[in-house]
Amino acid sequence: MKIKNLTKEISEIYERIVDGETSADLLTAKVHPSYRLSAKNLYRYLILRNFDLRKYHDSLSDIGVSSLRSSEGYVFNNLHNVIRNLKLIQGINTPKETGFEVVGYKRGKHLLQRHTRLLFNDKQLGHYTEIMVTLPSEAATNKLLIEKMVAKGMDVARINLSHDNEQTWTAMVRHLKEIEATTGKRTAIFMDLTGPKIRTGKITRTSKKGKNRDYLKIKKGNNLVLVKAEREIDPELQQSPHLAKNKVPVQLPKIIDALQIGEPVYFDDGMIKTVVTEKSVDSVTVQIQEAYKTRLGSEKGINIPSTKLNLPSLTKRDLALLPFAIKHADIIGYSFVRTPEDVASLYRHLDNLGANDVGVVFKIENQEAFENLPLILLEGMKRERIGVMIARGDLAVELGFERTSEVQNQILWLCEAAHVPVIWATQVLESLVKTGMATRAEISDAGLSTQAECVMLNKGPYIAEGIETLKHILIKMHAHYSKKKDSLRTLHIAVQALDKLEKSI
Fold this sequence. Notes:
Layout: H1 3-19, H2 21-27, H3 36-48, H4 54-62, H5 75-89, H6 105-120, E1 130-134, H7 143-152, E2 156-160, H8 166-183, E3 188-192, E4 205-206, E5 212-213, E6 215-217, E7 223-228, H9 235-238, H10 241-245, E8 247-250, H11 254-258, E9 264-267, E10 272-279, E11 283-291, E12 295-297, E13 302-303, H12 316-328, E14 331-334, H13 340-352, E15 359-364, H14 367-371, H15 373-380, E16 386-391, H16 392-399, H17 404-417, E17 422-425, H18 430-435, H19 440-448, E18 454-457, H20 463-478, H21 492-504
Parallel strand pairs: 1-2, 1-18, 2-3, 3-14, 7-8, 14-15, 15-16, 16-17, 17-18
Antiparallel strand pairs: 4-5, 6-12, 7-11, 9-10, 9-13, 10-11
Helix pairs in contact: 1-5, 2-3, 3-17, 3-21, 7-8, 7-20, 13-15, 19-20
């Protein structure tokens, strides 16, 4: 592309952003002062990504000018400097922009690091990716296990409120505080709210030898009968030994009513794929299409990506646990948030409890949350301590495994534009943590996770080895790599979000 045409087209994008400054001021007026410039930058980024920028990269690179590929954190400043340099090459002197509040490269980087330290209560002046670890139930009675995890490099301890009870969680917190007092090493406490997570109920079976087991054997082609957990299996099913044997109680009865014949149902993060074949008042029969596990246990996640459920993101159980969580946790994980209204609802409950300073992490777990992410971020910015978790397990099932990398990158871009820290979660070094041996693929995945501000490991017998390995990888990769360059085609999520925001003004 000729330099004059290049200058003209990029200047038109710049002017579009300039024209949007009044809207940016209105949309960001209510955010926390710490996030005011970040919110403006996010809005500018949404405008930028309404354009297909791929055609400019090679032309800009050929003449030694920034190719716009790494402008997420400082959109206005980067565009202005690109245009200024293009004009200088043509012998046209352009003054520096002074009429707008801008974020430069260094300031954008500083804002992201500052927000990261605020969220995790990290006092270190430098920064490398934080390590979050899910505490197993045994951590309540095994203080030495937690000590080992802290010593190996755990920065954030995650307590999943979907499992165990207040007595167990309190014991975990007590151990963490005692270790901090002894070692001086502070570990932030992260507590996940349950949200409307659909799970299997309690599964119990008796073997031919009379032994009880807490799982159901799974085989491709077999049927499973989903029933409402609070009800007994109906008489018709009881007459069929085969079906009764394959009964699976569901903790959220509403899905039995909502599921329709032909819709897919996934279990255990997509490891078991089924489709609905029969439906009655109290049950749904599904046929197993694919099975990457031979067992289905209790309290395993269920995903129904094609089924619409109008469920509140905050359940009655969440609201009951909120006082406990804000008393003990530094950060609350907001499960299955879907809309900015969900964010506002949580904030109201926290305000009523006087919890204005607790950190909140928005877990992006489904299609609706992903599509609404820019709006969720702008609503979330009304508080200072916020973050986003890429819950890759549920996302992969909900959006399709083939879209996982694409969606993951888009979340990273949007959060970098907003200077909001990101937690990279699900199946990180999973083989290593569970078996003691890592795969080459998951080592590569762990290396890429340095793009995020925090990486989460799940529990397993080799968790200490997992923490040590991850820390080593992150420190090494941080010296080489932080954010990658991308082609920057028109971003559909940005087009959608910008349209919604402009209509709201």
